[in-house]
Amino acid sequence: PRRRHRPQDPGQALEGAQSEVPAPPDDDRSALYRQLQVSSQDIAWLATTPGEEARGRSKPPSLVSHWRKGADRFPEAVVAGRSPRFRLDEVLKWMRDRDKLGREPSSRWLWRHSIQLLPPLAQANRANSLRPLVTGLVATVAKFQDGHTAPASELDDEQVIDSALEWTDGNPFRNPDDLAVDLSGVLLALRIALYDSPEERVLENGLDALSTFTSSEHATSEPLARLLARLALAGAPEDASLIDLGCGEGRVLTQVLDHDENQRVSQIRGLEIHEETVRIARRRLELQDPGSEGCIEQTDAFGELTESFDIVIVDPPAKGIANWTSRCTSLLEPTASARGFLVAPARDLSADGAICTTTLCRNIEAVILLPPGLRPHTKGPQALCVLTGEDRTQDRILVIDVSDRTLVTGPGAPPFKPNGRLKPTGRAEISCTDLTEALDDWRRQGRVDVSELEGRWESLSSAQAQVSGFGPVKPDLPASTLEAITRLQSELAGLPYGIEAYGRRIAELQKRVSRVVSDYEVD
C-alpha cells in the first residue's frame, strides 16, 4: 500500500468546528463528578495550581491525611484501606468551599479517570477486549459530533454502545443488560473530551489510561514505539518500504508517520493476527493518515511473503524470539542500508540465550540495553537489536547500555518514567537523538563519539556471542554485614511456620533481607 500525504493537525479542523458543536451542558459534568472516585494522589493534583506544578512544588498526597484528621469534616472515603478513594463531587465541593482547589478537572483528566469505571464491569478473562470497545466508543461518538446534527447530550447511549460492541468479539461485560446505566459516566466524559480535543488525541488518552488496568502483549508503549520509529527513520533510504511484524495496535506505524517529516518511507505495512487488535490499529492509522487504508492486514506474521523490505520492525511476544529474529533478517532487502529493529529480553543475548546460541548473532549490528518499564507486559531487562540481512553478517557488535538511564523520546517530550508519573528518579537522561547519532557514528567510523554515551558503549566480536550490561558496578557488601545477614537468614529459616502470630511477618522479613543482599556484589 502506498502512502499519501498526511492531512494537517486534526486540532486545526477542530478549532473551526467548535463554534458549531454545542458545548456539553454543566449538568453533564455534575453527573460525571457523582460517578467518579479519586485517590489521595488525584486530590493532591487538584490542590496544586499549574504554576506550582511548573515550579516543581506539587502538593503531596499526605495532604489528604492531614485534612482527614482535621476538624473540618473532609468527605468520608467510599473505599477504605491503605489506598482510600473518595467521591469526586464531594471532594470538589469541600475544596471549593475552603478555597483549596488549585485547578478544575480538565476534560482530558475526566476522560482518563472515567476509564476506571470499565474494568470492574468486564468479565475476568475479557479485560483486554475493553481496548477495542473504547476505540469503538470514541469512533462512534466522534462521528456523531462531527455531523453537528444535535448536542452531544442527545446521543442515544444504547445505540452508541451497540455500535461500539461491534468492535469486540462478543460482549465482554458481566451484566450486558444494564450497560446504558453502567457506561453513562464513560460516555459523559467522552462527549466532554471530544468537545475539547480531536478524536486522535482522545483515543490515545483513553487507551493509555486503560493500560493501567490491562496488560496486552499487542500494545507497544508510546516511548518504545517512538524510539523504534526514530531509529528506523534515521537510516532509511529514499522511497523506503517498511513492515511491522505483529504490529499490534499500530502504535509504531503511527509514530513512523508522525516523525517521517521528509517522507522517506513510501510504503508501510503491518501484519497482526488478532482481529480485535487489528481494528484498533486500523483506526489509529486512519486517524493519522486517511490514505493508509489497507496497510494493516489480519494475518500471521510467519505466513508467506514474496516481498522484501528496507525496514522491518518487530516487538514480539517474549517466547520464540529466535524465530522472530530469523523472520526479521529474512525479509530484509539485500542492500547495505536495509535494517531490522527487534525488541527482545536481554537474557536471550547472553551466552546461552536463544539468539546467541545460533548463527543469528552474526546479523546483529548493534544492541541497546533499554531502560526499565518500556515493555510493561514483559519481565526482566529488555534490549533493542539492530539487525542486517541474512547475507550481510557483522564482524563486530556495538553494545550500548542505557539500562540505568531515563529515556527522553523527543523535543518537548517529558522523560519517560516506568510508573507514568513525572517524579525525579536520580537517573541521567538519554535521548532518542543520542542513540540515532551513536548508530550513525558506528556505521561511518566504527566507534561512538556521542559525549552522553561515553563509557556506555563497547565493541564486541560477533564470535563472542554474548552481550551483557556494563553499567555501574554493585558495591561490595562488608564481610561483617554479610555474616550478620547470613546468620539472621539461617535463624529465620529454622523457625516453625505453624505459629500464625508471626509467620507472615517473618516471611516478609526474609524477603526484605534478600532484597538487601541483591543490591550488593557478594563473592
Question: Please, could you describe this protein's structure?
Answer:
40% of the residues lie in helices and 12% in strands. The chain is α/β, with parallel strands linked by helices. The strands form three sheets. It has a nine-stranded mixed β-sheet with strand order 5-4-3-6-7-9-8-10-13, sandwiched between helices. A two-stranded antiparallel sheet has the order 1-2. It starts with 9 loop residues before the first helix and ends in a 5-residue tail after the last helix.
Q: How would you concisely characterize the structure shown here?
A:
With 523 residues, this protein is of the alpha/beta class. It contains 19 helices and 13 strands.
Give the helices and strands, then pairings.
Blueprint: H1 10-17, H2 26-35, E1 37-38, H3 40-47, H4 50-54, H5 62-69, E2 86-87, H6 88-97, H7 107-114, H8 130-146, H9 157-165, H10 179-182, H11 184-196, H12 199-210, H13 222-234, E3 240-245, H14 251-259, E4 265-272, H15 275-288, E5 296-298, E6 311-314, H16 321-330, E7 339-345, E8 364-369, E9 382-387, E10 396-401, E11 406-408, E12 429-431, H17 432-445, E13 457-461, H18 479-494, H19 500-518
Parallel strand pairs: 3-4, 3-6, 4-5, 6-7, 8-10, 11-12
Antiparallel strand pairs: 1-2, 7-9, 8-9, 10-13
Key attributes of the depicted protein:
523 residues; alpha/beta; Rossmann fold; 3 domains; nine-stranded mixed β-sheet; two-stranded antiparallel ribbon; 40% helix; globular
